[in-house]
Amino acid sequence: MRRSRKLLAVLSTFAAVAAFSACSSQGGGDSVLTVWTFKQSEIKALEAAGADWGKQNNMTVKVSVYTPDDAYRTKIQAAAKSKTLPDIISIHSQGGDWKLAQAGIVQDITDDFTSSWQDQLLPGVIKGATLTEETIKNSGSDPTTTLNNLKAGHFYGVPYMAGTPGVIYANKTLLTAAGVDPSTTPASWQEWVAAIQKTQAHDSSTGGLATGLQVPETGYYWLYRPMAYAYLGADAFYGRQGRSQNPSWASEASIKTLELYNQLTPLWVPGVLGLGIDQADQAFASGKAAWVVGGTFTLSSLSTFGLSPDQVTIFPVPAASGGVSSRISYQASPLISGAVSSTSKHRAQAISFLKYLTSVKGATAFAENTLDLPAATIPVDSLSSPLLKQLVALVTSPAAGQTAFAANDFSADPGGTVAHDTAVQLAKFPAKSASIPDIANTISQLYTSAWKAVN
Amino acid sequence: MFAPYRRWAAPRHLRRGQWVGLLFVAPAVILFAVFGVYVVVYGFLLSFARWNGFSPDWTWVGVENYIALLGGNPAVSPKVAQATVNTLVGMLVLPIVVLVLGLALALLVNSVRRLRGLIRTVYFIPFVTTGIAVYYAWRFMYQPDGAVNAVLRALGLHSLAPVDGFLGNTTTALAAVIAVQVWSNVPIAMLLFLTGLQTIPDGVIEAARVDGASTVRTIWTIIVPLLNPVTALVVVIMLREALQNYQLYLLMTNGGPVNASNTLGLQSYSFAFGSITDLGFSSALGWLLAAVAIILAIVNLRVLRSRQ
């Protein structure tokens, strides 16, 4: 009798512990909508939106953050295995959302993401978030990259943060001290290079250009690609990355773009190859670099580092004269999407929350809280930050008669690591470790191998 | 009929006692089974599959991952080849430098009569303090305007102070990270050698001195051979460190600039958590590293044992 009581007590304890741990891992009950994000700067905005939406819907929104990216990825992988996923997973758009959908971790939300809802978003965002036949085809059959379970034209997440890379931030004080007029935006790549030469000649330690080149993609995605797009024109730019590599990376025009990029080699701040993205922003914010290349998303980072908006002027990476386009304009690309997990018991509520987050009210509050661009179209005048207003204008006012550059569109690329490998090759310019023809030929070979792997 | 009954009864009696023993060791066995055996078997099986960590199923590929890593895949092999060269540099430099510095410091500390405990503690500080904060501190010191360049410039050695700092330069990044590895591992080598030195009978050293042996000769022909077991241990530890430590490289350079400080350990991490997640490649590379480490340890121990 006594033994059976003890056994009962032990079993009850185990049951209680199991019940508690199940509750804590899933993080909520019927009235709690769980949201995971990987961006610390978003917590306040998501919680504020959650509080407002929760009042109207009689629910509580619980936001959890897991950083850095690799820890977040591991968290999702583990939660998918143990079926303890949250209702909404924040994920990188144009890739991250599709990868989770391919694995069955997030749901197809095409039917809910109606055209009237899509119309609320910035021009370019929907185009970027739409999975195309070309992207599926180019993802190949490799089990780690393929998207062949997905359907073209379908949506697997709702973009709520948008933006574009290719934005240059300049320190007005340092520019003025070097005799560069900060109120005049350089009209061409060549003019911009001349301006950096001036600031660097004035002070070689602080007059240079910074970006987080320890992550080689920054130089490639944020600087080279916009410049090359304008110089080569859309057809040649995407053709170079395509199956036929037409024109080749080693062609005359392509070599010219590499030469233009190489003009920056002596103009980087000392030690730029050792700088991470945050460190580069910090160097700029603390006056150790006169220029920093980033994106619309850099403003919130600079603000965190205490930079006053009055000290900064911004403009997009300028087009080089002599190329196909004399001016480059951007369209907003979807940057972060909210995806509804496949195990969510609150699908309707999750969709409703994402709808609120991309409404004018929700998106305006999101922008004010994060100093980042929301994916939804909002009245610019409602924003308090003058720089944020400029950034919104940057992606909503394309040059007349010109197709805006979708900076995060890699649909013409073969699947795999070719973009990263190309970025590493381009980092050889600031490292001064290879010649222009060598780099061009190596990139060409990388693309040939990558396409062979896809075929 | 009787004998079999006795044979059956005796173990039954013992089983009651065994159950208690088994209950006591069960937590340790379960922990080892889950965190040891299961993980090792899981990782080994994964090395024969392709998996991005998200998809519900693995794709079995046999030994293709190993073939790809060893030169059969142009998208993977060049990275592994460069990481191999960098790792080999570490495997060569780290054991030699740590051995020399560790032994020298141990001899120095052993010869000191006063404050030996304090000095030993001071020299051991790098080992107990190494971690994220210290690696970040080194990163700051290696910056273009960091402490290392400042000291070099103050000494008039401007040509040795890289304009881009030590970590922003392809020619110095690997050496700079290995230097931090040396700094953080010399103390453990010193402590091991010190322990070894204290086991050498004073009479042996005295006899050598009486026979007229110089200090250098005493060290080279008497102390060093007697410390062979410790040397073997230090070499094995340093080879493991050079092969498998990726955290230091991840935090200080992330393998850059331009893969100049990428090592096999870091490459394995990058396969698992990089731009394209491929846990199959990561696992296969991890097993290759483990195999190399085991072979080197066996060779090293055999060579030193044959010299004894």
From TrEMBL, chain A:
Alphabetical UniProt keywords: Signal
Signal peptide boundaries: 1-21
Protein's organism: Candidatus Lumbricidiphila eiseniae
Entries under Pfam families matching the protein: SBP_bac_1 (PF01547)
Entry-linked InterPro entries: Bact_solute-bd_prot1, SBP
Protein name: Sugar ABC transporter substrate-binding protein
Keyword Signal in record: yes
Domain of life, per lineage: Bacteria
From TrEMBL, chain B:
Keywords recorded for this protein, A-Z: Cell membrane, Membrane, Transmembrane, Transmembrane helix, Transport
Chain segments annotated as transmembrane: 20-45, 88-109, 121-138, 173-197, 218-239, 284-304
Location relative to the cell: Cell membrane
Pfam families in alphabetical order: BPD_transp_1 (PF00528)
A GO CC annotation given for this chain: plasma membrane
Domain ABC transmembrane type-1: 84-300
CDD domains in alphabetical order: TM_PBP2 (cd06261)
Biological process according to GO: transmembrane transport
Membrane disposition: Multi-pass membrane protein
InterPro entries for this protein: MetI-like, MetI-like_sf, UgpAE/MalFG_permease
The family this protein is said to belong to: Belongs to the binding-protein-dependent transport system permease family.
The protein's name in its UniProt record: ABC transmembrane type-1 domain-containing protein
Organism listed in the record: Candidatus Lumbricidiphila eiseniae
